[in-house]
Amino acid sequence: MSMIDLAAYLNDKQQLIESALSNYLPDQSASRLTQAMAYSLMNGGKRLRPILCMAACESMGGRAAQALPVACAIEMIHTYSLIHDDLPALDNDVLRRGRPTCHMAFDEATAILAGDGLLTLSFQLLSEFDEVSAYVSRDIQLTLISLISKAAGYQGMIEGQMRDLLSEGQSISLGALEDLHLLKTGAMIEASVVSGALLGGGSPDAITRMKQYARCIGLAFQIQDDILNVEGDPDVMGKSAGTDQLHKKGAYPALLGLEKAKVLAEELIDNALLHIDIFDSNFDPLRAIALYTIRRNK
């Protein structure tokens, strides 16, 4: 398997995303609400989901610019979910990416509304004719809106968040934990990859393989998050460690032990790579990102 300079690739894509996100944001001086939206959205981060969207588009022969509006909409949804996850009623976190969480920097009510604002702005962006339909048919645009809505909503991420809350302090089976995280984390990662593949004109067979790839890396990503919650450096991660144990959450290290959790993550990445092994070097960024998901330290 040929490899790419992943650090350079990620940096290039992150710069594209940061620039586009700042252009899509409303004027920060307009209100306290827009200040809070910008505070959270422009607070750095890995930008993994939008990068996956663009990489998937490029793997199918498309260009990153074709996927950029959809990629940014996906990042807005992800940021909204983090704002709400950090709230006192959910995870009650005070740090996100090394800075006070939105409700700590502003207040709880403003944080709720900032999350709402980013979620609705994402679908405004997805539905804009000039932004998305400049590259794909209106039918594909509607397919993307439906796909992302399902992944972000009660059949995807939100249901996963609900199950995560209900699992606190409870015994949970390995199968139930997998189902939880395929919804909470995996659904939006899968939507990111599949959206990019659709934008790049991928065939039905290619998109099926991309879905399988995405399911594997989505679950591996969550396992690595669980591992870092145990042994990660808070200064590197920009957020607290040990919170899963504190809140008695269902997590892979607690259920399997740390070493077995690491083995499972490696197995998932091996499977992810197998699903795309028939493809050419256009897929090398996706191969490198798969390995990155379990080798990262934040």
**How does the overall form come out from the CA principal axes?**
globular
* CATH homology superfamily name: Farnesyl Diphosphate Synthase
Find the CATH topology: Farnesyl Diphosphate Synthase
Average pLDDT, rounded to a whole number, is 93
The major beta sheet can be summarized as: 2 strands, antiparallel
Strands ordered across the widest β-sheet = 1-2
Determine the structural class based on helices, strands and strand pairing: mainly alpha
Distance from first to last alpha carbon: 26 Å
What proportion of the residues is helical, as a percent range? over 70%
Radius of gyration: 18 Å
Concise overview:
This protein has 298 residues and is mostly helical. It contains 17 helices and two strands.
Structure description:
The chain has 298 residues and is mainly alpha-helical. The chain has a single domain (28-295), classed as Farnesyl Diphosphate Synthase (Orthogonal Bundle). Helices cover 71% and strands 1% of the residues. The chain has 17 helices and 2 strands. The longest helix is centred in the last third of the chain and has 28 residues, at 204-231. The chain is globular, with a radius of gyration of 18 Å.
Topology readout:
Blueprint: H1 6-24, H2 32-41, H3 48-59, H4 64-85, E1 95-96, E2 99-100, H5 102-105, H6 108-127, H7 129-132, H8 138-152, H9 157-167, H10 174-184, H11 186-199, H12 204-231, H13 234-237, H14 243-246, H15 252-256, H16 258-275, H17 284-295
